[in-house]
Amino acid sequence: MTAPFYLPAGDEVDLFRAAYDQRIPVLLKGPTGCGKTRFVEYMAWEIAKQRTGTPPDEPLVTITCHDDLTAADLVGRYLLSAEGTTWLDGPLTRAARTGAICYLDEVVEARKDTTVVLHSLTDHRRTLPLERLGTTVAAHPDFLLVVSYNPGYQVTSKDLKPSTRQRFLAIEFGYPDPELEAEIIAHEAGVPADVAEALAALGARIRNLDAADLLDGPSTRLLVHAGALIGRGVAPRRACDLALVLATSDDRDVQDAVRQVAHAVFAA
Amino acid sequence: MTAPFYLPAGDEVDLFRAAYDQRIPVLLKGPTGCGKTRFVEYMAWEIAKQRTGTPPDEPLVTITCHDDLTAADLVGRYLLSAEGTTWLDGPLTRAARTGAICYLDEVVEARKDTTVVLHSLTDHRRTLPLERLGTTVAAHPDFLLVVSYNPGYQVTSKDLKPSTRQRFLAIEFGYPDPELEAEIIAHEAGVPADVAEALAALGARIRNLDAADLLDGPSTRLLVHAGALIGRGVAPRRACDLALVLATSDDRDVQDAVRQVAHAVFAA
Amino acid sequence: MTAPFYLPAGDEVDLFRAAYDQRIPVLLKGPTGCGKTRFVEYMAWEIAKQRTGTPPDEPLVTITCHDDLTAADLVGRYLLSAEGTTWLDGPLTRAARTGAICYLDEVVEARKDTTVVLHSLTDHRRTLPLERLGTTVAAHPDFLLVVSYNPGYQVTSKDLKPSTRQRFLAIEFGYPDPELEAEIIAHEAGVPADVAEALAALGARIRNLDAADLLDGPSTRLLVHAGALIGRGVAPRRACDLALVLATSDDRDVQDAVRQVAHAVFAA
Amino acid sequence: MTAPFYLPAGDEVDLFRAAYDQRIPVLLKGPTGCGKTRFVEYMAWEIAKQRTGTPPDEPLVTITCHDDLTAADLVGRYLLSAEGTTWLDGPLTRAARTGAICYLDEVVEARKDTTVVLHSLTDHRRTLPLERLGTTVAAHPDFLLVVSYNPGYQVTSKDLKPSTRQRFLAIEFGYPDPELEAEIIAHEAGVPADVAEALAALGARIRNLDAADLLDGPSTRLLVHAGALIGRGVAPRRACDLALVLATSDDRDVQDAVRQVAHAVFAA
Amino acid sequence: MTAPFYLPAGDEVDLFRAAYDQRIPVLLKGPTGCGKTRFVEYMAWEIAKQRTGTPPDEPLVTITCHDDLTAADLVGRYLLSAEGTTWLDGPLTRAARTGAICYLDEVVEARKDTTVVLHSLTDHRRTLPLERLGTTVAAHPDFLLVVSYNPGYQVTSKDLKPSTRQRFLAIEFGYPDPELEAEIIAHEAGVPADVAEALAALGARIRNLDAADLLDGPSTRLLVHAGALIGRGVAPRRACDLALVLATSDDRDVQDAVRQVAHAVFAA
Amino acid sequence: MTAPFYLPAGDEVDLFRAAYDQRIPVLLKGPTGCGKTRFVEYMAWEIAKQRTGTPPDEPLVTITCHDDLTAADLVGRYLLSAEGTTWLDGPLTRAARTGAICYLDEVVEARKDTTVVLHSLTDHRRTLPLERLGTTVAAHPDFLLVVSYNPGYQVTSKDLKPSTRQRFLAIEFGYPDPELEAEIIAHEAGVPADVAEALAALGARIRNLDAADLLDGPSTRLLVHAGALIGRGVAPRRACDLALVLATSDDRDVQDAVRQVAHAVFAA
């Protein structure tokens, strides 16, 4: 595993380190596509590097949460085989046993039964009861649980319960500032600095548009997409059309507003 | 596999090519029956033709999404056999392994758990975790995910989440312009040019009718249907009745309005 | 199989023929009990008669749709047997393989996942993916899909999606005109012409009653029922009570209105 | 099987006979506890007596419908055994094969998928497709379907669809008139004629109370219960309390109204 | 089995006896914790004592109803074993076979399909169809069905259907009068008569409080709890706090009102 | 098992002891993170120490309740193995058999069928029917059921039913007073007394903030988290940001209010 590409935006690396040292679970808050997944990949890689014993084969176990994710999907289940039933650990159990970092992306999308499974792993007990096996797994000393969500488009019915939430330290993420974002775009899309800077500036201007329908301003990822198309010879305005205008909204008014900003940045 | 019949309407072939070269997932937006499925078939055929290694047996894997499509339907499941359980790859896994283009038609119809499965395949990771197998598939370098939907009749409760949507470049489709549409009708229905032109003109006029109940103007497919009936000797007005009037609406007022336009185009 | 009893009411036989020759799927619209099922039986019999190869054992496969009809009910499923699992084709797959006409009665009652399964069978592809088998069935050249519904009592939440609907030619059915209906009643119930004519006239008059609660005027079937009772010696007014008054509504006012018409037609 | 106890209240026996002779399905409408179940038992016994061939072991198959009754509960299902799976006919299939009368009590309680299963058995086809077996059962010539429901407390969301309803002849039932009801009470509860007559009169008076909360007037069964307690030495007023007052409502006002009537009929 | 402790409050023992002698099903109505369960235990013991044949091992079969209780939970189900499937009688079937009293506690909590299963056991048929076995159990002559519910906190959507309800005789229960209740408290909690009397008086006073939020006045059980704590040396006011104040409500105002009454009865 | 760390805040230890001696089930009410789980661990340890016979391997069985917790999850289920099916006791059954204390955390989150399973274990019967095994477990004499919930954020639809609730003695918990809380923080986070005291004072002040959105004041656990970060060298204001500001709310106004209090307590 080579070092994941990650450019720190502030003190998030130190804060995560401090939390990890105390094994306090961490909650990452921030908009979609701002780099939370990359950050966790980077931290897991950093931490695995410094482990004294054998690092786990899989230092990071990522689970994208959704409405239909059951507790069994996390914890494990029996499979029927020719010899009867065999137990298969779920990703959470695997992480707890091997001392990996377990990352639950968009945790509020999970059903209540999923989040409740996390409780005994996130307090002084650090255990995971496998009720269907009739045993309890004590978490490996290196194990840590990390969760994330985007407070921007939460429905209130899908908030974390206080009894779950008050188990985490929260680190807040935002979009990178234009200079840093230009650096990322140049690196990821392989475009010259001036194109990257223009795209980063465009991103910042769109995010400032006061359009209620524009739920999430364009992510860094979308700016990289636009850059990649431009790098392939697509005209900048057309590239913005595909990556920023049509991809962010179906509303014609919002599309026009975004397109106008793009045209102001890139001459025809 | 012979080349699928597809007449480009604009720069969509080049744009798709640019996206494919960067392996950026593509979202096709447009009304029903305007040719999105044919376009993907055409692009998959074009791309397979140019592959250096062995092209996959099945260069395009199409999945029509619906409410009850589970993650297991996409990813795969265990089947019980005499030797215990055997794993059967789902179509998404098959496409990821063989480097096919995987096309999810009407993606917003899918449940959240289905779309979330797509996340790690549509960012820098390009992986598909098969949790029930306990392994992760790295996508074949030629693999690309394409999705489509029709913004015209979305219910807001069924929109894509920003965290899903901001993973795609969007290409917009509309109905072909009358000349192109006439060419398609002539080819598909096997009718003389004047009939095809009359039907194309009729299609354009119906789409302009300001009838709130007429959700989707008649698709090119319906115009081809009308042409096919005329080709079989059905009177043009009666053919329009079956293919355009009764097939598009149950509302008597809307039906009358459509019928009036048809009668204006085709003399009794 | 002897020829099903069917008396054409207009050009529906020719139109169906034209559609079948082009293999364009057909949608039959009309009230309950007006003869749609018989019509399809008749057409399937006619078409099977003229087939050059071996006609299928079962020229018509009928499926009555409902809320709980799953895609697996249509397509097929695995059964567990002593030798592991065996695949059992569903009725749609059976029809597609053998070249039967597949008739989905009351198609709007089906869930979305059921109707979506029909998409690739009803456009230029004419294929049915059997995802759980990992294969795709190419429809037999003689296969055709026919669906029906009753626009009279649709709930809007149960309308066909445009992307489904715009795959069909629509043929509209109504109640037979009194002369034809009398002929049918006489044939089916075995009553003299005057009784059959009186019942047909009664049917027409009840259908014209302006009673909002009377959702579906009495079907031809109910008139046949009344005739059958009269043929067994039940007094005509009492027969109408059972077959037309009590069978069509629980509302006392509607019942009285219907009864009054019956009494006007049949003297005590 | 000895003859079931049933006292005809009108022409219902002849009407049922006429319908049965034509094999037209029958719908019984009437309040709870008015004798519909007994009537069907009696008719099934009468018809079995007159059969020329071997009568079925079980001349009447009764199914009480409810929300969770699945189509499989009616039609049959596979059971897993040591030899793989074995098919077990459901009660409807059993009745159709053996020529029994199949009685679906409170049919509107059933889900839509259940009632739809009845369609092909209740028109000219008289067949029952067993999709999971891949076969179709042709109904025995003696088979008849009978359904019942209580129009008094239907929720409109649970009405029969016209396409189901217009397959039946309807026979209406009410409470027996006081003389007949007294005869029934005397026979069933084993009480002298004067007590039975008092209870029948009481029943009629309570049913006439204009209390909106009193959904279903006391059934004949409840009057029999009261008689049975009186026969065991319980004071008549106390017996009415248990059988008629507390058993019909939780509303104190309704209870008082009913109790007052009871006290007027039975002196302390 | 030793005689269950039960102190009759009125004529309920004789009434139950009369109903049992006629095998008329019984419905017990009354608030929570007023002794319905004990009463049924007592009656089952009394009846088992007087049986001439061998009494059943289990004279009373109790089932606490809830939303998720399925018909199979009552009637029985197949279990998969090495020899294929074995049938396991449910508690209702067991009771019907052995002639036990079957007691369904809080019957309105059950789903409709559960209550419908009871129908043929509670009228002249006294049978239980085991559809999945393909057989019907005739109830043992000693079998009786008893159900209970609390009319105080019914939601109307969870009322018994008239067709179910009108199968039972209803016996009403209330809280015991203070003298009887004091006797019960003294016996159960092992406290001196004066403490028991004070608690019984307190119970009566709290039940008379006009507090809308106080859904169910404290049950006899809670007064016994308070007595038990006092017997263990807990100060009476503190004991009332735990057993009566905090246990009955989360509303601070209701708690204060209850506490005030407790303080009036027990000096500090 | 070493003694769990628990500092009593009042008479809760004696009250629990009194309840346990009488085997009266206990309900713990109080906000999240105030120490209810620790208290039960402590009491289970204390009680196990004093047992005369062999103490159970697992003196405390904890189950965190949630919406999808089924009765089978508590009671047990069959597992399919090569020899057929084997029964696996659930945690509740295990506790009842071995005489452990069974603790249901957040009991109101459980579905009704779960709580109903508790009924016969929490009254004079002290039994647990295992319907699927066809047997009944008599609880071990040392068994006790303890449940908890947080009255602060109950939705009324999720209240305990009176028939469940009136089976428990209730002990109320609050946040520890500042002195005790400082002692806990110092012990758990390993920080000097002055930091612990400042954090305890901060906790008390935030809990007094009149902000409707601040559902649950910060738990002791969050104050310990803040202390742990400070102990790792994170600046106190930044530590409060992560542990108290961002972790308790997504509302910017609430965050500002909390941050202001934190800044007042900790100088920059």
Automatic annotation (TrEMBL), chains A, B, C, D, E, F:
Protein name: CbbQ/NirQ/NorQ/GpvN family protein
Lineage, top ranks: Bacteria, Bacillati, Actinomycetota, Actinomycetes, Pseudonocardiales
Similarity section: Belongs to the CbbQ/NirQ/NorQ/GpvN family.
Gene3D superfamilies: P-loop containing nucleotide triphosphate hydrolases
Keyword ATP-binding: yes
Keywords: ATP-binding, Nucleotide-binding
Organism: Amycolatopsis carbonis
Domain CbbQ/NirQ/NorQ C-terminal, first and last residues per copy: 181-265
GO molecular function terms listed in the Swiss-Prot or TrEMBL record: ATP binding; ATP hydrolysis activity
Start and end residues of each ATPase dynein-related AAA domain: 25-168
Keyword ATP-binding among record annotations: yes
